[in-house]
Design a protein that fits this description.
With 210 residues, the protein is an all-alpha fold. It has a single domain, classed as Orthogonal Bundle (Cytochrome Bc1 Complex, Chain D, domain 2). The protein is built from 10 helices and no strands. The protein is elongated. The protein binds heme C (2 copies).
Length: 210
């Protein structure tokens, strides 16, 4: 090898070493995020689409980032009670919370469906017009006409039927458990004022929305 060639080899090796030492911390942070994502997806589905089991796992895909972050904090602060998620969320740093939330917001698999379809037309009416006689506002007023939500207001489109029925029937046993009023208070009267069959109808309708 000429001395010019070996000099080039040394320069390349030096550049490579410098590049590696700069990219290592970044690579390991990305590795940590990926490891956490893999963990979340064992329950929430490979594309965050949710899972219909004995305990329904909510869809996280396409969910508003601010909503995801607020709920992860709510589990840690025990404003929202769930033993599984309290443990999961407790272990996350603030930058991990935003990294995970941003990842899930950008996924968009098809809704997994599985809701009884017969109640869906009544659900569409509740979603768009509310139930004035029962003091239930139109869901679309806050969650958007496409059900995609905004900031701390969650996306409902494609959310799992069983999960939503569970949340809406048990609202005040699970949410708003902190010492001060939080975002969950906005939904409380709406959840209380619907009957079980009205809850089932509107949950069935939104679970099919793309
Ligand atoms: C062992 C199963 C399991 C794992 C692992 C898990 N979750 Fe959950 N998660 C659940 C269950 C069950 C619920 C529903 C809680 C309830 O009913 O209130 C939930 C709820 C949530 C919610 C609230 C969703 C909503 O629509 O309000 C968020 C956000 C969430 N999980 C994020 C995560 C993230 C991020 C990870 C990974 C770091 C993760 N979860 C890992 C089981 C799990
Ligand atoms: C005044 C605004 C407002 C209206 C109207 C409203 N919501 Fe909500 N909704 C919210 C907010 C804010 C949250 C987040 C609550 C929290 O932070 O715990 C929420 C949360 C929810 C959740 C929990 C989603 C999840 O992923 O866990 C469901 C389900 C829901 N709303 C269904 C409905 C339905 C069905 C209607 C219509 C009958 C409706 N909402 C009307 C503001 C509203």
């Amino acid at each position: 090898m000429s001395s010019f060639g070996s000099c080039l080899t040394m320069i390349r090796a030096a550049i490579l070493a410098a590049a590696l030492s700069m990219s290592l911390p970044v690579a390991s942070r990305a590795g940590e995020l990926q490891a956490k994502l893999d963990y979340c997806k064992t329950c929430h589905g490979l594309s965050g689409q949710g899972y219909r089991g004995y305990f329904p796992m909510p869809r996280l895909a396409g969910q508003q980032q601010e909503y995801l972050e607020n709920q992860l904090r709510a589990f840690v602060e025990r404003r929202r009670i769930n033993p599984i998620m309290a443990n999961v969320a407790h272990a996350l740093s603030p930058s991990m919370v935003s990294g995970l939330s941003s990842h899930f917001q950008h996924l968009n698999p098809k809704p997994i469906g599985g809701a009884p379809s017969h109640s869906s037309p009544a659900g569409r009416q509740i979603f768009n017009e509310g139930l004035p006689e029962a003091n239930v506002p139109a869901c679309s007023a806050c969650h958007g006409s496409d059900g995609h939500g905004q900031n701390e207001i969650p996306r409902l489109a494609g959310q799992l039927y069983e999960y939503m029925v569970g949340q809406l029937t048990g609202w005040s046993k699970v949410r708003g458990q902190g010492t001060s009023v939080d975002t969950s208070a906005v939904m409380a009267p709406t959840a209380h004022n619907m009957s079980r069959s009205q809850i089932e109808a509107v949950a069935a309708y939104v679970s099919t929305l793309p």
